[in-house]
Amino acid sequence: MTETDRNIDVHAPPDEYYSESPAVRTPAVQRSRSRNYQRVRQQFSEYQPETSDDADADRIPGQPAGPRRHTVRRRGSVDDRTMHPRRFLVDIDRIEKQVLEQEDTDGDFQITVEDSGPKTLKVPTASSGGYRTFEIRGTYMLSNLLQEMALARDCGLSQVVIDEDRLSENPVNRLSRMIRTTFWNGLVRCMDESGIQAVCADPKNSTPDCPPIIYVPYDDQPAYEYYKGVARDLSNLNIQVVRLPKDITPRYVNSINEKSGILSLAADVSYDANGRLVYQPLPFVVPGGRFNEMYGWDSYFSALGLLVDGRYQLAKNMVDHFAYEIVHYGKILNANRSYYLTRSQPPFMTDMIIKVFEALPNNSDIEKERNHEWLRKSLDAAISEYFNVWMSEPRYHAGTGLSRYYTTGYGMPPETESSHFDHTVEPFAKRLGVSVEDYKKLYSHEKIHEPELDEYFVHDRAVRESGHDTSYRLERRCANLATVDLNTLLYKYEVDFADTLDEHFDGHFDWSGGRETTAAEWRVRAETRRKSIDKYLWNEQKGLYFDYDVVLGEQSVYESVTAFWALWAGCATPAQARRLVDVGCRKFEVKGGLVSGTEESRGVISLERPNRQWDYPYGWAPHQIVAWYGMYNYGFGDVARRFAYRWLFTITQAFVDFNGTVAEKLDVVNMTHRFQVEYGNVGVDFKMVPREGF
Questions:
Q1: What are phi and psi of 665, to 5 degrees?
Q2: What is the distance between the alpha carbons of residues 677 and 694, in angstroms, rounded to a whole number?
Q3: Are residues 466 and 474 in contact, defined by beta-carbon separation less than 8 angstroms?
Q4: Choice among 293, 298, 469, 559 that is catalytic
Q5: What is the pLDDT of residue 419?
Q6: Residues β-bridged to residue 267
Q7: Which partner from 88, 143, 148, 366 sits 20 to 30 angstroms from 514, CA to CA?
Q8: Kind of pairing between the strands at 538-539 and 544-545
């Protein structure tokens, strides 16, 4: 692969993308290897929804029909174009100062509905050479003006001509365009020399007592040589390059918690004609602007968007990074940081592999052969992850045949704020007669042993491995739970392995783990897991799937929207699906999308029992997207579209009213991103213009 080929879609979308119709670019994202999925997709490709202006169009199944209402035609975001579209001649310094002084009344360098300015500004027109002015009105247009000036300033301009159409652009089109042309580029990271400098500037990567550290697998000599060279070239940063041991034990990981660092990822490795190493780290995408490391399940959902926008190389790189982590670190990591070496995340790799494989160019025999080899290597890594992580102790529970989130780390998770566990530790410190800080040091260094705290942190780390950190659904019991989400994901792995082996490897695959595996074996595994899911997780009386406590031997009573994941994976029967959709819509569908869980399950909130970010009333993109695909899987396309509309409307509303904000999570009950909850809300803190969103 040439350098041009490798980077064509990493730093900007291909030019031809903009003339490509949505119908051409989306099938690879919408297809799945599940035969049931393909059958249902065929049915829905022939279905065209009827338009309706009555109240039933927005009615939740199970609720009575409302009164008919008249259709109200609302004014669009873009007026009809005239023969001479208006353009503005903007002196950036002067107009920016005027906008902020007049309109930014709360001083946050954003123009939002919460500002109390007049929301109108006269701006010079380009056709008059700046002599005449025209009034720009409203929060949305003024915030877009502020954003366009900031983007022009980024390009080194002091003056810019801005089309009125750009300021009044349909917000859905504008958000899609900004994701495509700006946000992705702002979220790209790379472990090359330039990227390492950004990593070193991240406060997570160094402390006054410890310089930046890059950890490299014991058997990756090219990576070690490359990063030793980077350390020499950037000697002012005092970077240390450390080889990890062959056997990365939990005790070793605990021993380096106070010397945390970044972990190397995959690269294109070759040698030039003189035998010199050519090492090119592969770019990847992070979930939000404050991150510099690649995360686990976030990467799957990012990859879906990258493929829609034609950025298949970035999505492929992220699969390659996952495979590298499995080979060298034993698992797909929570993120590529040293203190995550004992912790994984929800497994989406097989579906990610399939979708990327379908998007790769295959116009020549060479490309087809290269793609097939990539599929083989990626699938081999995923099979290793399946057996060595999810089907091994302590995560696999033989009594039920199900799996659970269960990490092998020691002590307190070091990535949290220093005071995060003070309230938990305080009673034990008082009992021992030492300060909280001294107790935390003694406990972390294994100088004291406290079984009650040990159990607490086993569950706390498991919650973080689940990706749902935190939620009262999982608190103080996560490692005991065979969860719906994890086991439906593993069912999907088993079905994907069977289908891919049948379609691309004649039903047989030589796994690097030392034996041949067959499609027939994977179908047996999938059916076995489906029966266990039915036995332990499905509740016929309540019409929902529930997590199962393997220690207590009973189902949890927490009602979680992850029940819909069974539809995404395809492990529900048609009767179960109908019941689940009927019950689930009534419990989880709210005005702004799907809520994480029910208010009743969450319980009463108080100062002593604060809200958790993965509970009611919050909604997250992964829950929405999995549910949409699940609904389509079983023929509930109308429900899927309604779910999607609610969520996308909520996102767009925040984008319009709050200066282009794209937030990490949303209060879908109250339709807002403005709330106080643990860990804040990534994507809302920026000046002038959002450059990456979340």
A1: -145, 165
A2: 17
A3: yes
A4: 469
A5: 85
A6: 281
A7: 366
A8: antiparallel
Residue 627 CA to residue 61 CA, distance in Å, equals 16
Please state, for a pLDDT cut of 70, what percent of the chain lies above it: 87
Alpha helices in 189-273 (DSSP H): 193-201, 221-233, 250-255
pLDDT tens digits for 407-466? 998 889 988 887 889 999 999 999 999 999 999 999 988 899 999 999 999 999 999 999
pLDDT tens for each residue of 586-605: 999 999 999 999 999 999 99
Strands in 519-669 per DSSP E: 538-539, 544-545, 548-549, 554-555, 589-590, 593-594, 618-619, 666-667
Residue 507 and residue 221: Cα distance in Å, rounded? Answer: 36
What would the two tokens of residue 362 be? 């295959």
The dihedral sign for the CA sequence 535, 540, 544, 548: negative
How many C-beta atoms lie closer than 10 Å to residue 221's C-beta? 13
CA angle 319, 323, 327 (to 5 degrees): 170
- With tokens 């309230």, the residue in question is 423
Is 469 annotated as catalytic? yes
Return the C-alpha torsion angle 312, 315, 320, 321, nearest 10.
150
Sign of CA dihedral 117, 120, 126, 131: negative
Catalytic one among 148, 494, 664, 692?
Answer: 664
| 219 noted as active-site residue | no
Q: What angle (nearest 5°) sits at the alpha carbon of residue 296, between those of residues 290 and 301?
A: 85
The pTM of this model reads 0.88
